[in-house]
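Subgroup meeting minutes
Present: P.N., E.W., G.H.
Scribe: E.W.

1. P.N. recapped why we're keeping a running log of single-chain structure predictions: easier to compare across weeks, and new members can see raw inputs and outputs side by side.
2. G.H. added today's entry (269 aa).
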Amino acid sequence: MRIIIFCLLYFILISNTNCQNNSYQKDLQITYIANEGFLISFDNKKALIDGLFKSKHYTSPSDSLISKIIDNKAPVDNINYFLVTHDHQDHFNEKLVSDFLSKNPKTKFISTSESCKKINETGLKSTNLICQNLEIGELKEVNEIKDENFSVSAFRLKHGTSTDINNLALIIRINDFNIMHMGDAFILQNQEYIDKINWENYKIDILFIGYMDVNQFVLEILSKTIKPKNLIMMHIHEEDIQEAKDRNEKNSGNAIVFEKELETRTFNK
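Output recorded in log:
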């Protein structure tokens, strides 16, 4: 009888453990770094976007957080992919990124050809630089990534109103989640390119969008095109957090506003 009870308890314990593991694997975590910088985590995959920089004019990661990223310390450790939308100083610093890549040689770096050039000019020798040079409006999967649980497509869009700056909107698939980061692209200024894409092929779960781009016109375009399930507002200066909240409430009330460094939100299917 004791053996039967023991076996039953063991079965229940194993079943609960499996359920917890399965539940964990369905959760996506997004952690705020600064400005447009975010860490995306799912199970054993981590991708950092626009997360290493120092800017006088925009909210930047603290020195302690920068050190943790470069030195591979929790909670920003074991980063598999480092993505940068463009090479401006409020998104990217070649010296900091070069230091990170030298200490984390297995991490793959994905960005524009301009960002890669700046890293090469620091003297870093790395075979993990994946450099994209697209035409405006061109959307292309990054074929150099050989990972069944992770993929990236780069979509070159106007930076503000400029077609000269190489700005990449990044579409990331991490397991069952699809995430899109706009970089410094505005929806209205890029509508002609956005309208050409069959967004049913991407099924965006989370869209990162500049907070100044959240208005009724943009939300209407999004409802007919990208159709994101969740919006995250970004490019918010510390002093503009309340303005972003007010804009969110006025126009939709559904977008997420991160307020503090390393603040984390969890998403599930």
